[in-house]
Amino acid sequence: MPIRTGQQYIDRIDALNTYISLDGEIVTGKVSEHPAFKGVMQSQAKLFDLQHQQELLETMTYESPTSKERVGMSFLQVITPEDLVKRRYAAQEWALSSHGFMGRSPDYMNTTLMALASASDFLKDKPNCFPEHLLQFYDDAREHDLTMTHTFIEPQVNRKRYYIEDEEVTIAAKIVGKTSKGLVIKGARLLATQGGITDELLVLSTNGYDEWKAFGFSIPSNTAGLKFLCRQSFVGGDSTFDHPLSARFEEMDAIVVFDDVIVPWERVFYYENVDVANHFMNVSGFQAYTLHQVLSRQIAKTEFVLGVVQSIIDTIHIGDYQHVQQKVVDIIVTLETMKALLLKSEIEAQRDQFGFVRPDLATLQVAIQIFPKVYPTFTEIIQLLGASGLMSIPSAQAFAKDEGDLAHYLQSFQDGGEERVQKFRLAWDLTMSSFGTRQTLYERFFFGDPIRLSSILYKSYDRGHLVKRVEDFLNRD
Amino acid sequence: MPIRTGQQYIDRIDALNTYISLDGEIVTGKVSEHPAFKGVMQSQAKLFDLQHQQELLETMTYESPTSKERVGMSFLQVITPEDLVKRRYAAQEWALSSHGFMGRSPDYMNTTLMALASASDFLKDKPNCFPEHLLQFYDDAREHDLTMTHTFIEPQVNRKRYYIEDEEVTIAAKIVGKTSKGLVIKGARLLATQGGITDELLVLSTNGYDEWKAFGFSIPSNTAGLKFLCRQSFVGGDSTFDHPLSARFEEMDAIVVFDDVIVPWERVFYYENVDVANHFMNVSGFQAYTLHQVLSRQIAKTEFVLGVVQSIIDTIHIGDYQHVQQKVVDIIVTLETMKALLLKSEIEAQRDQFGFVRPDLATLQVAIQIFPKVYPTFTEIIQLLGASGLMSIPSAQAFAKDEGDLAHYLQSFQDGGEERVQKFRLAWDLTMSSFGTRQTLYERFFFGDPIRLSSILYKSYDRGHLVKRVEDFLNRD
Amino acid sequence: MPIRTGQQYIDRIDALNTYISLDGEIVTGKVSEHPAFKGVMQSQAKLFDLQHQQELLETMTYESPTSKERVGMSFLQVITPEDLVKRRYAAQEWALSSHGFMGRSPDYMNTTLMALASASDFLKDKPNCFPEHLLQFYDDAREHDLTMTHTFIEPQVNRKRYYIEDEEVTIAAKIVGKTSKGLVIKGARLLATQGGITDELLVLSTNGYDEWKAFGFSIPSNTAGLKFLCRQSFVGGDSTFDHPLSARFEEMDAIVVFDDVIVPWERVFYYENVDVANHFMNVSGFQAYTLHQVLSRQIAKTEFVLGVVQSIIDTIHIGDYQHVQQKVVDIIVTLETMKALLLKSEIEAQRDQFGFVRPDLATLQVAIQIFPKVYPTFTEIIQLLGASGLMSIPSAQAFAKDEGDLAHYLQSFQDGGEERVQKFRLAWDLTMSSFGTRQTLYERFFFGDPIRLSSILYKSYDRGHLVKRVEDFLNRD
Amino acid sequence: MPIRTGQQYIDRIDALNTYISLDGEIVTGKVSEHPAFKGVMQSQAKLFDLQHQQELLETMTYESPTSKERVGMSFLQVITPEDLVKRRYAAQEWALSSHGFMGRSPDYMNTTLMALASASDFLKDKPNCFPEHLLQFYDDAREHDLTMTHTFIEPQVNRKRYYIEDEEVTIAAKIVGKTSKGLVIKGARLLATQGGITDELLVLSTNGYDEWKAFGFSIPSNTAGLKFLCRQSFVGGDSTFDHPLSARFEEMDAIVVFDDVIVPWERVFYYENVDVANHFMNVSGFQAYTLHQVLSRQIAKTEFVLGVVQSIIDTIHIGDYQHVQQKVVDIIVTLETMKALLLKSEIEAQRDQFGFVRPDLATLQVAIQIFPKVYPTFTEIIQLLGASGLMSIPSAQAFAKDEGDLAHYLQSFQDGGEERVQKFRLAWDLTMSSFGTRQTLYERFFFGDPIRLSSILYKSYDRGHLVKRVEDFLNRD
């Protein structure tokens, strides 16, 4: 049966024996049992299991056009406006399961792949392009319920404008050879979230100024020569009392090194075609479809934050202050705004050149302006409301051995000491632990450099008619 | 024919001879020819004329349920969701005509009256309440295409919390007597926009702590004892080159004084019923329906601002700067957000207790949080982009007598001196003239004190399920 | 006697018959009696008279090194740190007299000239440079108590980076010829504040990419071919009740056109020396000395704003609200910060290469970052506190003919209607009249484009030792 | 010899065997070797050692008026303005040593005690007050170079206004008995920074509504019944590559529980005197003197942040972007502002009622408004500049076992991979580790609730003369 269970997901990843390096150690044994990965893999497994819940079957799956079996809704191509709504419901369900903390829940990458596959016609008859490979991979991924990660950016050697890497030194991954088996890739790319715990790694170069950096392909995570070099883990520990979020949702980010990796030809979507590399993503519905999914995730996250904030207000009884009310209202405004933009993107959806229905891109580009600026303010709000409560956070162990002092002296208006500290630890893990701050950073840059996103919107947003309207006004009478 | 023409509107107002005091002079003669009023009355007349344009007839009017003649769409009661859309289209058309600068275009007050009339059942069988008077007045207004202003607030003697006026001194208007003819009202109310140039004055007390301040009624502007005391006029002059906005759209604000005014019983909707006075507005669809109209106006205004900003950018050629792009994007985000919230309010409309369909109030309450904060930033954006251009603004007369210096030395990348100065004068009138700054103040407080609006939203917005969601999360495993 | 009286100033300006064009009319007769100029000239005259007040003589004047008569303190060259303090006291006195609303009170330009003269050695022995002319003019200005305006910037044709004007079209003023009498200048410059009501016009080109735009000189305002083309006047009227600020302090801004103006050689400080044109201002103490004066003016203005804000709070009794208190505190923080930076600039003053003592430039560059951002917030504060009170502003005439309504119904907690409206009209004139908004724009750009000022500070501020400190920290242990 | 060495400090604390509970374990053995405390104790020891450096002896110490030996400068009472400068130099030296990360470096508490002792006359002849105990303790602390922590606030049960604890339930510490030996105290107080690693705990109740909560005393940390219950430790680990700040400066915060603690009478400064409890802190120079020290610490911290930010800019070469420059300038403005306010507080120092010289309080109250708002923006700046670099942070171990991938692929414009990651790990520890976020929270609330601090400044700041100035202006002419 195409949709997989959580256990199947875990077993498959464990079997891969992907090269993962963490703190100088190569991960051996089952990755699903490694402290840095077990929590998030369990959370991901739950997503797969949700697909099998009878009452969610219609929401989470659809009938495969090929196998006629149930496959994951995030693979659904959008033929009608209703398909968009179906996709939204499924995205919301998964987002709710992890409260929006997993930026690389499988639907994000499934959506990416669906978007590219739906635009595969663009590759047709172009030099060094293989739309059939892309379509085949899309089918495989859907029918095997594969998980993917990706790397779209190059190492941050030099962020000066117009920096072009010297040919002599290879840092960013590039084509260094071609053999009968496939492309040979050498170099590094950033920053694969969930790197090492997915079946596949999807790689698309987006600024292919040079032929040797113009490529698109996907390879299994355990391909020879492929290495995932991890940052320090932000799992605080096993205890879900102490680390309610990081114990469950810490996704890890990895630098990906290609050490003369051979990409089999049947997995190459295009190569050495600068024009295609520069335009394929933009011509495809990648932005529109993924932002549509992203917004559902961000909405779930905002709802969770609002719940946390209100819990804190209730437990220490500060809801009568005007400045407290204003802070809550600011979150409400963000929440309703994003919900409204999501609806608008669907209402204003249009059929694209490939025959599929896309949500309105301008609306979604506006939406993606908001969260990177607003999400960091949630930390500010929680710190200003939580105050010393965010520092009065003894651990589960402390409570376990407590003889009454903590339970008594840390009580609040509404809760006993332990219940109250549990809420504050959640607020702390959300905004102040290494996990929480990584979330903030992640949301700041989720869809790319905010300044670049602004510039794109500035250039693409249609407003000539408004300038005309002003001119007509000046010339009337 | 029920819908009136612009000329009919003007003639009717001129005929009223309403008591209007301005700079110590009582306005005599035709008010439509007075420098402080003629521009805005011409603009208002255009709105009436629009209703008669053949191609807009379906948009701007509908068939009266009583007279079967065409009446103004802003009077339409909302039986179906489609009625909301119709109302939106009409509101947009009028908003476009004045680019959102007329906060008291007749549809605002028509909508108010429609909302109250639709909730007239609330008054049924309550002491001192006359729902039949309200319904009759609604019919009259619709069939005669009356214009109204209103005053909902009391003089700002003391803004301390819980201030209650001393009984001895009458400042805020109150009931001082009852005769066979009607209620006797004495005192002042603030701040009637368009006061003096409408047919009627609608008065609803909203915080009727005391019986003598609990009333709702409407009276003709020329009722004996009723005085409109105007602030200084902000019409800069006749020239639409020099004062493109104030010459057309300056609405005037007036203090309303009731000098023992007798309100005929047939125009009294309720009196001396504190409970009704305190709840009628909130129980009715007043907020939901008027905010739905207001949003259309604010959207048109934002579009105009965006057009002006882009015109300036184009004329002095500064669109390549990143900080300039960011400023434009900020306006785009506001615009799309408000459009999205307006759509959402319609999609989530629900039938109310009186059988009518209301747009979603929470969504609209969120929307009204945005403009008071964002509109003032438009001034900042325009000042930062316009810079010295906003001070290099010779008048039309200066250009008329110019021998070439101004035309030459004030040219820009795109325009000759006069065209360029015309654009900057528009930007200046929009944000820096007395008219422009009054607009900013008006938008800050359009729907009431922003702090109070926040508090209302804090209290009414449903989020118990989100607190529950957080608790479930903490208790899982 | 060198220091002049107000009357002497007025008589001298009247006698010049400078070419001033306003609304297409050439000003004829006494400019001091023209509605657009009389208020500010009266205010300026008061500054001159202050110099003659016996108790201020020591503060406002010093003994001329040449004539041994009393001359204006703003001409004082800074030999000792105490001289800086003397200069500050004098600047504060004048700033207080106009509450900081006159950006071109004579001390600003006097300071400019003093700074240039003190650096005249820089011009010595350089091609086409005449330090002796500069010194002579400084002496003349001091001994005759001359007033000056200046124009440092070019018309805003195109603000694109690296825009260089086409040689064919003359817009920005440039050298078009040289005769035995002097340089011939043609073209325009922006934006002479007080243009037309000063004795002299000082012109320094600051970005002399081309020889023909590299010059520095001063000429009398009535030089043949020199024209001051004014923007619309922002004097609201004569009444100081209605227009307490614009009736007194509106300085006017003028485009300056040079119509083949001959600048006599003895008034040329340098010409056709690109290197000198590019560096003289920066090498001189211009920035340090003028910013030192500017800060005193901005402090007086901030104090006035704080007084106005508190008056409004008191009159409507809103000082108990936390958000009101926060707004006042924000102004207090600005005020104390600027006072502190002014002190620091004096304490850290150092002797420059020409032997004079300069206040610390980095400190003053920091100070000038603050006001352009904070001043506009004063408008926001006043609007949020004043609310409808800023629209309930009948004119003096209205009160004159009032039969009690206005006095009664507009009373506040503390004041009768007229006293209260007087305060709100002041607040309105400060922030919402055309005069007030021009003040805001003026402060935003007072010392140049804020972005450019930031960039200069970024480049000049010494922080290598702090980077070193971090590196040492990383390498310790 | 009164000033102690670092080793003496460590030995003394180790010998105390204070009751410290952490994660449910009671700390046994030497606290100076416990992972949660050893780093900060080493850093603290360095401060003591600094006092013994020959070249710093004059800066860091002065001659004791009693023992005639060298004692710590932070104990110096301020007889002359020069004494303030001496105190500043010493505070700066210690602040530099820990770059401002230790909020409870001993000088803070020494200053507190000095301030109270200098105001001991206030206690004279008041009921239940013992100024002689206070003076004796001040002498003891100075002559033994004691370290202290303190707890000034009560548990956050309920932050509703006017909440008064029920008498039945003891949560906040209070007097529950009096014996011949001393006061008996029961209950908890928050939040002792460095709790457990100081010699003494100073306790002052600040809102003594009730007699049983009105007290001031100091007791040794190892007093019977006194418990320090710690939050989770934020020491990330031993490696100063991985955790350059938390390995050195994590101070720990502890809830303090009094389990029927007997406070010896000779250590009681006052008790059961509500009036004294409410006013002693404010009457004393506590605020002025401690803020004077705090500012030196915050300045050192800001300098460190500026150094870190510039290091990152340099290493990835982004200093040419205007938005990057603006962010640096914002930090520069903060830094110079605080330096200026510190100077101003000294220049405007005045002699108090007890005969000592106090820095200007209003100036310092303004200063303390700034950091709580600005410090959190440092995180934003670092995240926006650091971007993905803040996630590409392998550990020291990873580098130790790296075979060249990390060093190569993580290189930057300026640095090799390891050097670059070291800088980014510092930036991360500064702003994104649990240590870094705790620092942010700490600075937000360092001197109390910012809203309360605003309110105090609003009420105390003298501005009547400015209101008067406005009134005079309105009444002139």
TrEMBL record, chains A, B, C, D:
It comes from the Bacteria. One of its GO terms (biological process) is phenylacetate catabolic process. FAD binds at residues 156-159, 193, 449-452. Residues 5-269 form the HpaB/PvcC/4-BUDH N-terminal domain. Transmembrane segments: none annotated. Residues 277-474 form the HpaB/PvcC/4-BUDH C-terminal domain. GO terms for molecular function: flavin adenine dinucleotide binding; oxidoreductase activity, acting on paired donors, with incorporation or reduction of molecular oxygen, reduced flavin or flavoprotein as one donor, and incorporation of one atom of oxygen; oxidoreductase activity, acting on the CH-CH group of donors. SUPFAM superfamilies: Acyl-CoA dehydrogenase C-terminal domain-like, Acyl-CoA dehydrogenase NM domain-like. Keywords: FAD, Flavoprotein, Monooxygenase, Oxidoreductase. NCBIfam families: HpaB-1 (TIGR02309). This is 4-hydroxyphenylacetate 3-monooxygenase.
